[in-house]
Structure to design on (616 residues):
């Protein structure tokens, strides 16, 4: 197992290298002059030239890349053009809010998918199944930002009592109940897209498992249906779902950009979105890098978990 | 066993053909519904200047924030612009981004996949690492990064979504090429002296087309959704040009005043267009690839 993990980590190195090149090139493609963006009102050519020298922007691109990666390896993502705050510091400050929203969304998505997906597979072609299939298809096609707006309209303005606030964030340390109240709508919005995919996967995995001989054997042994489903069907059907949840982490990271914008949620997605119009590239670059690396590590974690959960997968096969 | 087999040509009577169409429609309602919706959106996009009842960007403050009525079926926004007309004109942006970005992804991805799968070796290794690097980014985050670097314009949104679509085509094509590369008909073509380009285009590519058609249909749904998301974040076409995502973002400031119609029109439009392509893609997958026929 350790050899497998090490091999996967080694395979990640060239990909990580290409990711850093991609992000570096993207920022350099930008038509805006970073020195002008950083200097603000300052337009004295001598000062601008000095800044260019200081930031190494007059060096050849490969030299600039090496300098940038060296800083990156030391955890230095540069400074925001606007606030002059260190980018890593800005990201770390906002990471708890994004993590809270992401974990809540993942919990909602997985729990509902498991419960409804199982019911849908057991009662195939029933009303529950039909409703679940419709919700799945609608969920995949429904834009999350529109769902967010519909939820705000209903729960913050139309339904009397204004059950949930339209947006904003209260840290857990300040007021737990207000934090949870503000979390509900964004978490549902973020969960909706991945819920549809997870639900479909749980249902089809279960239906696939139902056809196996060991299910008939389990029933023939006289086990209760509940035990058959929980101990034999779900246990085997959930293996592909684990992979899918890993993929959904990517969907949740990207969904956070939209959801945090709608609900004024002060996470890293909103940090990047507010940085875009002002041309604050170090911030955008930092958030994109953190998102890509988080996604890569989650994928690795899921692959390892998958190999560990399913004894049929040899480490050699999984690595190939 | 005696006597020679007599070839019999069974002609299908005309009424049976109509029956066959009806049978196909009964068996594939998703393809019919999805296809009809897609055609409807294409029609609206092409004939927007004729179909749209008003000018989508003409400001008419005296008619601002009118709720849905017979004169303005989906109401008007704060500048008095007809929401329905903006939705119809917005379909041009969404569908053109969908088609062009999917074409970019298709051409680049399929070419890379064909080349990587057929040439193999170090070339394959290099190409696939680049594809892995593209897959390391969550799709929309990559599209946001590319568009924010190139500048918020519709062309850049097309390029960004196109680049994001490349890995799916490349991997799909490469997988299919690897599966057929050692088959007898490829070996035979090589033996009679066909050039590699001819082998790839005439013998390998046709075996991938079914899967690619399905992928292209589903990718169009993603592209429409991604364009709407980029526009929502201000990275698509710029105001006053109508765009579904941008219009939903703009409508957000009137939610507290319960001017719901400003968001509902573009929201339902995005949903129905994405739904149509997803529905059609799912149906095509079932029809074209029996291995993927779902158990449900």
């Amino acid at each position: 197992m350790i050899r497998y993990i090490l091999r996967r980590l080694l395979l990640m190195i060239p990909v990580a290298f290409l990711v850093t090149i991609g992000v570096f090139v993207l920022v350099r493609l930008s038509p805006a002059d970073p020195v002008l963006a950083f200097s603000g009102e300052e337009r004295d050519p001598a000062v601008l030239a000095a800044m260019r020298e200081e930031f190494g922007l007059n060096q050849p691109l490969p030299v600039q890349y090496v300098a940038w990666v060296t800083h990156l390896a030391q955890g230095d993502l540069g400074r925001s053009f606007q606030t002059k705050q260190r980018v890593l510091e800005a990201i770390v400050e906002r990471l708890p809010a994004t993590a809270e929203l992401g974990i809540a969304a993942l919990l909602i998505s997985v729990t509902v998918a498991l419960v409804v997906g199982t019911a849908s597979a057991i009662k195939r072609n029933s009303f529950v199944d039909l409703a679940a299939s419709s919700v799945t298809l609608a969920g995949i096609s429904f834009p999350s930002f529109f769902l967010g707006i519909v939820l705000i309209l209903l729960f913050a303005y139309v339904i009397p009592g204004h059950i949930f606030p339209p947006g904003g964030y209260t840290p857990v340390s300040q007021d737990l109940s207000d934090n949870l109240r503000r979390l509900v709508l964004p978490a549902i919005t973020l969960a909706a897209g991945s819920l549809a995919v997870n639900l479909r996967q749980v249902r089809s995995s279960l239906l696939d498992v139902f056809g196996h001989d060991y299910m008939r054997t389990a029933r023939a042994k006289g086990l209760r249906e509940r035990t058959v489903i929980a101990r034999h069907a779900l246990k085997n059907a959930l293996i592909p779902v684990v992979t899918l949840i890993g993929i959904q982490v990517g969907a949740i990271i990207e969904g956070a950009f939209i959801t945090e914008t709608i609900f004024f949620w002060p996470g890293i997605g909103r940090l990047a979105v507010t940085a875009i119009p002002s041309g604050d590239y170090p911030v955008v670059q930092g958030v994109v890098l953190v998102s890509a690396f988080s996604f890569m590590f989650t994928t690795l974690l899921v692959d390892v978990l998958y190999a560990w959960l399913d004894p049929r997968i040899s480490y050699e096969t999984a690595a190939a | 066993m005696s006597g020679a087999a007599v070839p019999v040509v069974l002609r299908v009577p005309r009424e049976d053909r109509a029956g066959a169409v009806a049978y196909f429609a009964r068996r594939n309602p998703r393809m019919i519904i999805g296809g009809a919706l897609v055609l409807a959106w294409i029609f609206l996009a092409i004939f927007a200047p004729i179909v749209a009842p008003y000018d989508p960007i003409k400001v008419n403050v005296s008619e601002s924030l009118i709720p849905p009525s017979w004169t303005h079926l989906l109401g008007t926004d704060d500048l008095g612009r007809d929401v329905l007309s903006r939705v119809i004109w917005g379909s041009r942006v969404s569908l053109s981004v969908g088609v062009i970005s999917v074409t970019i992804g298709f051409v680049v991805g399929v070419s890379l996949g064909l080349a990587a799968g057929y040439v193999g070796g170090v070339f394959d290794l290099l190409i696939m690492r680049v594809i892995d690097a593209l897959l390391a980014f969550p799709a929309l985050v990559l599209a946001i990064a590319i568009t924010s670097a190139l500048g918020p314009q519709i062309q850049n949104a097309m390029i960004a979504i196109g680049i994001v679509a490349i890995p799916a085509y490349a991997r799909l094509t490469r997988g299919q090429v690897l599966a057929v590369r050692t088959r007898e008909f490829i070996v035979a073509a090589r033996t009679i002296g066909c050039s590699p380009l001819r082998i790839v285009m005439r013998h390998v590519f046709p075996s991938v087309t079914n899967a690619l058609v399905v992928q292209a249909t589903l990718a169009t749904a993603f592209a429409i959704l991604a364009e709407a998301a980029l526009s929502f974040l201000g990275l698509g076409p710029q105001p006053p040009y109508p765009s579904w995502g941008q219009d939903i973002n703009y409508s957000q400031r009137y939610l507290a005043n319960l001017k719901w119609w400003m968001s509902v029109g573009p929201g339902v439009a995005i949903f129905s267009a994405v739904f149509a392509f997803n529905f059609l893609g799912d149906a095509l997958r079932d029809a074209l690839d029996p291995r993927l026929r779902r158990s449900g």
Remarks:
- The mean pLDDT of chain B is 87.
